[in-house]
Amino acid sequence: MNAPASTPTGALAGIKVLDLSRVLAGPWCTQMLADLGADVVKVERPVAGDDTRHWGPPFLKDGAGNDTREASYFTACNRNKRSITVDMAQPEGQALLRRMAAQADVVVENFKVGGLAQYGLDYESLKALNPRLIYCSITGFGQDGPYAERAGYDLMVQAMCGLMSITGHADEAPGGGPLKVGVAVVDVFTGLYASNAILAALNARDNAHGGSGQGQYIDMALLDVGMAVLANQASGFLATGQAPGRAGNIHPSLAPYQDFATADGNVLLAIGNDGQFARFCAAIGQEGWAQDARFATNTARVHNRAALLALMQPVMRLRTTAQWISLLEDKAVPCGPINDVAQAFDDPQVRHRGIRKELPREAGDGIAQVATVANPMRLSATPVSYRSAPPALGQHTEAVLAELGLDAAAVADLRRKGVI
Questions:
Q1: What is the pLDDT of residue 211?
Q2: To which CATH superfamily is domain 257-339 assigned?
Q3: Residue 417's closest CA among 104, 53, 95?
Q4: Contact 120/186 with Cβ under 8 angstroms?
């Protein structure tokens, strides 16, 4: 798998992934692997495809600027993949997928517990064909336990794991009540954890210093991930036995670390230590605040948050958001605007880093190119690549089946039968 330095390849070049997942968590995982150079073949249902192809509006636009039938949601997590259509309910479709799994390094699926056994596509069946196979199952609640048979969705898990209970304003505040995060973060985090687990399993199999040569099974559950990403909120509960509540944009362990109203809008202050607070106080001519015993340390500021805010809020309204940023940015006091998504993409730093990527779509479906968001991993020797736009449904079926050894007549017969 190693290539000469003069011809750099992705870190996962040579790794073959059979992607039987759909919606977000599984596809996010496999896009991560694809970005790193793996050959990911996405298997979709004939005609319908992945559910998210229809989750619109918004939809992709054709060359004339008109809406197509393909939802933009799909493009968030299916870059750099090849799409084939296979009806796994048919025996010939199952046989095709088993042949592909026999040649794959990784299978990722998010069917219900035990759902693929009837097709001979479960781990034990495929392990018998390919002992080196790494097989990752993603479900709502895991492969065992009282909830194992339940369907699991991001919103449900955000509610169950406690994330919604700490997101939003307090009940007594205007607009108070539990809220979901604005992105399906449990799905996204599950995809990230799953890709990490797969990389660990590949290393355990192939490591030159004692690799087993054997694959393994990975059981990923959205609920497990939801609990894990509670992070400091979970550790705070475990330390005290007290369930944290909602406090809007206030940080439970830092102060001042929140949004403030300004003369023309809002600004975000993220003061994380006593030095930053002292520099903020000096910048606004209130050095005495940093010497006040109530505010001299972060712990004191947290305990006396109400008194501190009573002093700060009138001062913060004296300048515009831009004036606050100009005042504080060269003093190492973290301060910034609260952008909407359009403003974020237009931010000079975001534009400099090339976060928006335009990828050509060569599927003959009227969509010339698709905009996607760059992968944030910047590797110096084996950089992320942007080889292809999220594919049209079944765009690569013929090419992938030809790699399996099927000739044009065999592919045409499968298409006639509705297998592909």
A1: 86
A2: formyl-coa transferase, domain 3 (3.30.1540.10)
A3: 95
A4: no
Q: Kindly report, residue by residue over 381-410, the tens digit of the pLDDT.
A: 999 999 999 999 999 999 999 999 999 999
- Residue 269: in which H helix or E strand, if any? strand 266-270
**CATH for 16-229+353-417, among 3.30.2400.10, 3.10.310.30, 3.10.580.10, 3.40.50.10540?**
3.40.50.10540
**230-254 residue pLDDT tens:** 999 999 999 999 999 998 999 989 9
pLDDT of 305: 96
Is residue 187 part of the annotated active site? The answer reads yes
Side-chain-side CA neighbours of 188 within 13 Å: the count stands at 8
How many Å apart are CA 240 and CA 35, to the nearest integer?
Answer: 42
Using a cut of 0.90, tell me whether the model's pTM lies above it. Answer: yes
Q: Which of 35, 50, 105, 187 is catalytic?
A: 187
DSSP label of 255: S
Q: How many residues does the chain have?
A: 420
